[in-house]
Design goal:
Structural class: alpha/beta
Distance between the termini: 55 Å
Helix content: 40-55%
Largest sheet: 8 strands, mixed
Strand content: 15-25%
CATH class of the largest domain: Alpha Beta
CATH architecture of the largest domain: Alpha-Beta Complex
Length: 279
């Protein structure tokens, strides 16, 4: 299968870190990559990706991941690349991974016979949607006028929640409205994708959310540590390197330390602070 990965990235310091390079390298074994960063990166930083990508671009556009997907997609269109591929993937760096070889996951999705597919889907009662950090599209979708109009129309919105409603939920709504079939390997309810990363790892989910490092006052430290002890040393070191650079070495060290009692205390502290500030 010929695959094109449109990868959206962001780094608060404009650095192409080792965990992002790890992900790009792993995906490059299974297809071609166009990467777009929603931050200002130097040419020297972008050159770190050159062994793995067809094209890499950077610049703060403020349109979040869908803005990067848009720019990568339009580059593929203008370069005459899009028609060469059997599948087009939208992938963003809100997750760490892949924790396992991505090949079998790609094959399972592609053999589903769906027009669109994702690693994970939120089966929300009112707004069920494919989670936009890893979505695959068949030509019936990515060459359609409806999808091109949708992705070309991405604009700046004021906050992430608006982006999720208009573009993440909106993409699934578009699929449904146009009669495209869709599905996912995992159905993950509510906030479980953020809060239950250890069990999701045990279930085989090949990524975990980066926000695990900052959620609930550090109460997910034990879960993150569980995963780090079981994945490849190269990826584990890359994750520690990037999070230490962004959050500080001391924060990451303390975050990963502590047993169940410590994690419980952190969560109670988070709840107390949340209750106090909502009164």
């Amino acid at each position: 299968m010929k695959r094109l990965f449109l990868v959206a990235g962001y780094d608060p310091q404009g650095i192409i870190g080792p965990s992002f390079i790890y992900c790009i390298s792993a995906l490059s074994a299974y297809g071609d990559i166009i990467a777009v960063m929603d931050c200002d990166c130097t040419e020297e930083e972008l050159r770190k990706l050159s062994p793995y990508v067809l094209h890499a671009g950077a610049g703060r556009h403020g349109e979040y991941d869908f803005g990067s997907y848009k720019r990568a997609y339009l580059y593929a269109c203008s370069s005459g690349l899009l028609g060469k591929y059997d599948f087009c993937y939208l992938v963003n760096d809100s997750v760490f991974g892949p924790l396992h070889d991505p090949g079998p996951y790609l094959e399972r999705m592609e053999k589903s016979g769906k027009d669109a597919f994702a690693i994970a889907m939120n089966p929300h009662r009112r707004h069920p949607h494919l989670q936009s950090w890893f979505i695959g599209l068949a030509p019936s979708v990515f060459t359609s006028g409806e999808f091109r109009e949708f992705i070309s129309g991405v604009r700046h919105l004021e906050d992430k929640n608006s982006v999720c409603m208009v573009y993440e939920n909106g993409l699934t709504a578009l699929l449904r409205r146009c009669g495209f079939s869709y599905g996912a390997l995992y159905r993950i309810k509510g906030k479980r994708i953020y809060n239950d990363i250890r069990n999701l790892y045990r279930d085989g989910l090949p990524f975990f959310k980066k926000s695990a490092f900052t959620r609930h006052n550090g109460a997910l430290g034990a879960q993150v540590n569980y995963i780090l002890q079981r994945i490849s040393p190269e990826l584990g070191s890359a994750i520690i390197s990037d999070t230490s650079r962004i959050y500080g070495t001391e924060y990451v060290r303390r975050f990963l330390e502590g047993g169940p009692a410590e994690m419980f205390c952190r969560y109670i502290s988070y709840l107390a602070d949340k209750i106090f500030h909502t009164r």
